[in-house]
Design a protein that fits this description.
heterotrimer, A: about 260 residues, mainly alpha, Arc Repressor Mutant, subunit A, 3-stranded antiparallel β-sheet, 8 helices, 4 strands, about 10% strand, rod-shaped, B: about 220 residues, alpha+beta, 2 domains, about 45% helix, about 15% strand, elongated, ScpA (chain A), Segregation and condensation protein A (chain A), cytoplasm (chains B, C), cell cycle (chains B, C), Condensin subunit ScpB (chains B, C)
Chain lengths: ~260, ~220, ~220
């Protein structure tokens, strides 16, 4: 990582630029570290060999000049100035053995490290941006094809549906003189009778709700009655060995199918 | 790559890139462009002296039998998924839905009365049959068109299909339980749903009588 | 055409299609999308028993030196035009938003130091990171939040995304240019400042202790 871009300007140009930078404003720099990095460019190519002392002096001079020009300085810059002044004194005065804390050299080394790291990040950022980029140097597919979610609807009907449908049409205006005493009750006998007639067509598993009498689903009371009796009738038929029942899970639909008499 | 010899023929000031290169170029352009690209556009975009038409011939051959192919779309060219791999671009989810009451009734009437005309279905149901219902049944291939009636207007008739029989596990439409069996099974015992006004439709007694006869007549073919 | 054999194989539940076929399938799927596709997604879409990883090896080789290439992006795969042909694609070039210097530097720091906290970014840049900069990078989906640091305050960390890798043509974060050199030079270490260096971020002595560990963890995948 020693390929830090060497400044090719001669010193006078660099000096001029530094002077210009002063006149412009501090906003041109991305913070005090950036300013320090810029100042260090006028010194050495290798950031590891930068004279931190000299750098501190340059920075402080810069701040003084900015103050003289009444440039508004962000707090960051002043904090850095104070710290660099402290560092400068540490570096210039002989170390005081009674004093605790890091030596001036340690602090200077760390500052040099920070500068080098910042410079390194800038270099790799430039390398990164110089890479071939998607949409600029290489390209993705122009015509993309979405994975289609094909929603296929399959309509089903059972033979029972078909017959019930037909029966419904054939009987819908038939006159029925039959009167029930308690028309909100569908008795188990009624359910049994109804189901006995129907189970002959129930060769496949069918939800027992299919066997509910037509028209009983409008009034909740009648629906409850019909549900109870249909369920009871299913159990009765299962007991008689005429049908088989199954339910996959608690509260899942109960299914019924005709039991083939082949066993016996 | 078969480049140099081919391109050497070009004696233009700017030498055209070797054919292998041109093929790569056409490949990249067809890949990245959203629209099919004409030979002219290809030539315009490629370096001077390039022959996109020839490069296309090579490229097309290269993609023969591959997962994507170079295809002509109108007078332009594009890369497209090989037709046999279309299934990879779809994720199928099957949803089962109960057939509507109208569809079931219509289907039942066709099954019991086939061949039956739309007017007859409407007469039996007492309501008009929507186009969608018939279309749905046709699409499901449970019904199909039968012979036209030799009556004025020569209306089309509907009959049920083998698919229908297969679905309901019937050998023939004749195996459908007759009215008597329906009655015996209690299916004709239904009272009109409470709350619905009894309909004074066309006399059903006749209709019923007619049915029996209609049915036998019907299952001839 | 070898249809029959192919479809026969497809029908068999347990036998995977021949490798040549699998290669075609991967080819078709990668061609159909602009986004990189993971091996898992490929396998999910291909018939049972297929081995997309192996098919990819063959396919990648097949496209070597061609106008489009099979490239790895993180743990996913994509087809991209060969970079040397970019000059043909002026029409396809998308204007990317110009990134500010701050954004570029922040991005680089996240890429090379990930997972990295905002305080660490600020320490490296020596200046506070504006909210807008991070937001812009998040919005471009070049960075995302990583795991929180297990230090006081549990600060969020940032890491780069697959889109970032895709955009810069990187197989993984390990392939970042100059990464090895930076590491060898110790410039990716988070060296605790001795004593009282003015810190712009909140005190991260704790955070820093953990960083080393976090980092090695990072470039492992």
């Amino acid at each position: 990582m020693n390929d830090v871009t060497p400044e090719t300007f001669d010193v006078s140009v660099a000096d001029r630029l530094a002077a210009e930078a002063l006149i412009v404003d501090v906003d041109g720099f991305e913070g005090p570290l950036d300013l320090l990095l810029s100042l260090s460019r006028t010194q050495k190519v290798d950031l590891r060999k930068v004279s931190v002392l000299q750098l501190a002096q340059q920075y402080l001079a810069f701040i003084e000049q900015a103050k003289a020009l009444r440039i508004e300085l962000a707090a960051d810059y002043l904090v850095m100035a104070a710290w660099l002044a402290f560092l400068k004194s540490r570096l210039l005065l002989p170390p005081d053995p009674t004093e605790e804390g890091p030596s001036g050299e340690d602090l200077a080394a760390h500052l040099a490290f920070q500068l080098e790291r910042l410079q390194a990040m800038r270099d790799v950022a430039a390398k990164l941006m110089a890479r071939d980029q998607l949409g600029r140097d290489f390209f993705a597919r122009g015509v993309t094809q979405q994975v289609e979610r094909v929603r296929k609807v399959e309509y089903t009907a059972t033979l029972l549906d078909l017959m019930q449908g037909y029966a419904r049409i054939r009987t819908k205006d038939e006159f029925r003189p039959f009167v029930m005493d308690r028309d909100a009750v569908f008795t188990m006998e009624q359910a049994l009778e109804r189901m006995r007639g129907l189970i002959g067509f129930a060769g496949t598993w069918t939800d027992i709700s299919t066997y509910m009498p037509d028209g009983w689903n409008i009034d909740p009371g009648r629906w409850r009655s019909a549900t109870a009796s249909t369920f009871a009738a299913s159990l009765e038929l299962a007991k008689e060995g005429k049908v088989e029942l199954r339910q996959s899970d608690t509260f899942a639909p109960i299914e019924l199918r005709r039991k083939e008499p082949r066993g016996d | 790559m078969t480049d140099t010899t081919e391109s050497e023929i070009e004696e233009s000031l700017f030498e055209a890139p070797p054919m292998g290169e041109q093929e790569r170029m056409v490949e990249a352009i067809l890949f990245a462009t959203a629209e099919p690209v004409t030979v002219k556009e290809l030539n315009d975009r490629m370096p001077h002296g390039a022959d996109a038409a020839e490069a296309l011939v090579h490229l097309r051959k290269r993609y023969e039998g591959r997962g994507v192919n170079v295809v002509k779309v109108g007078d332009a060219w594009a890369i497209r998924t090989a037709p046999d791999l279309g299934f990879l671009m779809q994720k199928e989810t099957v949803e089962t839905r109960k057939l509507s009451r109208a569809a079931i009734e219509t289907l039942a009437i066709i099954a019991y009365h086939q061949p039956v005309t739309r007017a007859e279905i409407e007469e039996i149901r007492g309501v008009s049959v929507s186009r969608g219902t018939v279309d749905q049944l046709l699409e499901m291939e449970w019904i199909r068109f039968g012979r036209r009636r030799m009556t004025p207007g020569r209306p089309v008739t509907f009959v049920v299909t083998q698919d229908f029989l297969d679905h309901f596990g019937l050998e023939s439409a004749r195996d459908l339980p007759g009215l008597k069996e329906l009655r015996a099974a209690g299916l004709l015992e239904n009272r009109p749903p409470p709350g619905t006004v009894p309909q004074l439709g066309e006399g059903d007694v006749d209709a019923e009588e007619e049915t029996e006869e209609g049915q036998s007549e019907l299952f001839e073919d």
